[in-house]
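Async update (no meeting this week)

Hi team, since we skipped the sync, here's where things stand on the single-chain job. The sequence we agreed to prioritize is pasted below, unchanged from the tracker. I ran it this morning and attached the output directly underneath so nobody has to dig for it. Comments welcome in thread, and please keep replies under the output.
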Amino acid sequence: SVDQMSKFYTFVSEGAADAKIDIKREFTSCSSIFTPLIRARSSEVVHGKFLSPKDLYWHDPTGCSETTEEFVLVKNRMFPRRMLCSTYPNLCEFFTEACGVPKVPTTADYVEMLLRLSKVALPSQVAHQVFRVFVRWATDIHSVSDKNDLVYVKDSLQKLETTILPTLVDKWVSLHPSFGLVCWSDDDELKQHFQNCIDVDFIQFGTLSSEDKQILYGRVAALMKSLGIPALSKVVHREAIFYGTADNREKATLLCGLLPYMQRYIYKTHRDAYINFQQNEIMKLSNLQIIVVEKLFHKYMLKGHESSSKKRFKCHCLLQGNILYATQEADSHSLFLETSRIFFDGSPDLHFANFLHMVKTMAISGTSAEQVESFVVNNQNVPALPEEEAVWSFSSSFVPEFVPDQGVDSKPVETSSACVLNIHKQHQRSDGTVSSWPPNNWRTAPDFRTSRRSQHGPLQDTKVNNDNWLPGPLQDIEVNDVELTNTEDNWFPVQLDEDWVIEEDTSLESNLHTESTVATLDEPQMVMSINADGAPAYLDLGTGSPSETEVMDFSDKMPNTSEGRERLRAAQLLKTGRVGEAVAYKHLVERLGAKNVRWVNADTETGLPYDIIITRGDNRIEYVEVKATTTSNKNWFYITAREWQFALEKGDDFSIARVMVSGEKMANIKMLKNPHKLCQKKMLHLALLIARR
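Output:
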């Protein structure tokens, strides 16, 4: 019985210290450890077998051993219990230290364990136990330098008889070629298209918790890649289906002009990917073609197989081999995201696309080359390439020469093989841009009187100044409502005295915490207003009129002409904005310390979609955009499409500082953290303003 053997091994362990013989050598030289063949009471006589220490282990942390034993009992089969902790629970030190029994199963033990399990259970019954074994392998194999265990598992899986991989169709398979393609699903949407396909078997690990899924996509995914088990996304490619072609010069020129920034970004942030691309895949650039089409679709295909998805999917950009397809309507960000697959092993990189999109947006908005370079180097921390690095380039035919259609009376356009992204030295703005919009009280809107007049008679033609169109009272406009023509010339330093009184309004934050059950809105689009309920007490909101106190005090009088008023208005707007940024910066420095707060416009106007950068203790970066005004009852402000897009990308890492400057050296700040979330909580509202031409 087990009791008798326990007493024997206890006697041996107690006398081992005084024994003149080498217990470990004696036990390992022969099969001397008894293990029962069936589960029985410890006092009952039971069939068993004597095994050597190397054929046993003390405990199985995966639980696979107990699961195997349970299924074997159901089948009324006999096999030696190799896990000793359940048979001799009080003799751990004796067996592991004195006798040399391994504390946990070896890799070979687990292979044998899974083989035995596959003979008594269905994959769907024990898939999670197989997952636990894979987690153990991933931990053990990748934590030691010895790769013999990895080679052993890989060689074992190549054998026809080692069917230890559970599949979605409830059958056991190995990686032997006779079983066809075996992969694991890293994309549930893709799996839906191929789960009924006879050309592929999906490994299943049962229902996984969120923590297990993280392990699957991390350590276990790396293990399966080493074992030759591919992810579904790596054996599926997208096949382009397109109709019609169009001129590709615009998109080709854009990519060609941004290629130096692509190289700099990858060199700085993805050095391993850069080295691999430079050494093994650099020819992708010279072979790349861009084809612009009228309509573009794709379907999923299994590599090396005839199987494909039954549906086709509309898209705007698609990289297939050396060809980058794009529709005429494809936006630049989608183009950059698809281009990133060239450098990152077929996977899109969102940060890569965001970086290029910001550079491109600055360039086409008229930001000077010097400002773009300052943004790339200082704000994005992407320096110039070392001189010894070879500069990447596309082929000379990447941007083709224009060839007019036959019968069309058009002249050829000369193009150069050298592609340049034009970066103007002055900002440009489109004609008729209206930089204001109505708040929730429409009577205070800058253009309200004009709207009323339109009810009684036709409007006279209005000439719009493309540099500054500033409707309504001066006090209702703020600096962010207009785009000045030259940010370098309009910039000037601002320094606040120490006796400024700056208060922070936290009412919005308090309301956000209390209204946790507010219904959410659909995806918001543009321009916002805020409630003025939490404004400081020294502001008189009852009159509904603008504050009489101005931040600016110009001693020289401007001529009372339309041009003079416009110049005065622009100067006042600029100073209000600069003072607002200085107020926000001073307030944040007092709260967080100077080393954690940086005013990006302190020395020059950068044109970025934010004004202040905050560095937190965990190296997290937050961005603050300042919106300043001198009007107490103005609960709306203009936000650009670029600023809103940046807010969506950054989420909780983006805030708007609404600064209300009033009185002599007095200001109030309302921090709007994650304005997108505030819109969903109905604590901010968005509106669109139609430009009047």
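Quick observations from my side:
The chain has four domains: 1-105, 106-230, 237-380, 566-681.
Residues 402-420, 422-489, 512-526, 531-559 have pLDDT under 50 and may be disordered.
Reply here if anything looks off.
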